[in-house]
C-alpha cells in the first residue's frame, strides 16, 4: 500500500522532497496534514551522509508538518514559515 502523497500522482500533484540532516538518528519520519499526522505513513530514508529524505507527491495547497526523530516531534530547521499548534510548539508550513 502506498503512502498518501506517494505512488500514483493525483492530477496537478507535484513532488516535494522533505530533507533532514540527522546522522545519529535511528528513525526519522515526516508527519503532517497531508498524511493525517501519522509518522508511520511518512518514514524517511537515510543516505550515506546522514541525511534523511522522503519525496511525496502533493496537489497544490498549503500543508503543515513536523519531523519525528526517534519518537520525538522535532522542528524542521530549514522551514521558512511556522504556525503555532495546540501542543505549545509550532508546525512548519509548506506551500505546493
CATH class: Mainly Beta
Number of E-type strands? 8
Q: Residue-averaged pLDDT, rounded?
A: 91
Q: Which structural category do the helix and sheet elements fall into?
A: mainly beta
Q: Hey, roughly how much beta strand do the residues contain?
A: 35-45%
Sketch the topology as an H/E string, one letter per element: EEEEEEEE
The coarse overall form would be globular
CATH fold-level name = Immunoglobulin-like
Write up this protein:
The chain is an all-beta fold and 96 residues long. The protein has strands at 14-21, 28-32, 45-46, 51-58, 62-69, 72-74, 82-84, 90-95. The strands form 2 sheets. Strands 2, 5, 6, 7 and 8 form a 5-stranded antiparallel β-sheet that branches. A hairpin with a 4-residue loop joins strand 3 and strand 4 (51-58). The chain starts with 13 loop residues before the first strand and ends with a strand.
Question: Brief description of this entry?
Answer:
By secondary structure, the chain is an all-beta fold.
Amino acid at each position: 500500500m502506498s503512502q498518501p502523497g506517494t505512488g500514483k500522482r493525483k492530477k496537478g500533484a507535484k513532488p516535494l522532497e522533505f530533507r533532514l540532516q540527522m546522522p545519529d538518528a535511528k528513525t526519522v519520519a515526516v508527519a503532517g496534514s497531508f498524511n493525517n499526522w501519522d509518522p508511520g505513513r511518512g518514514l524517511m530514508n537515510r543516505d550515506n551522509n546522514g541525511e534523511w529524505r522522503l519525496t511525496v507527491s502533493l496537489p497544490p495547497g498549503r500543508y503543515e508538518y513536523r519531523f519525528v526523530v526517534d519518537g520525538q516531534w522535532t522542528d524542521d530547521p530549514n522551514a521558512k514559515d511556522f504556525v503555532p499548534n495546540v501542543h505549545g510548539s509550532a508546525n512548519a508550513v509548506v506551500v505546493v
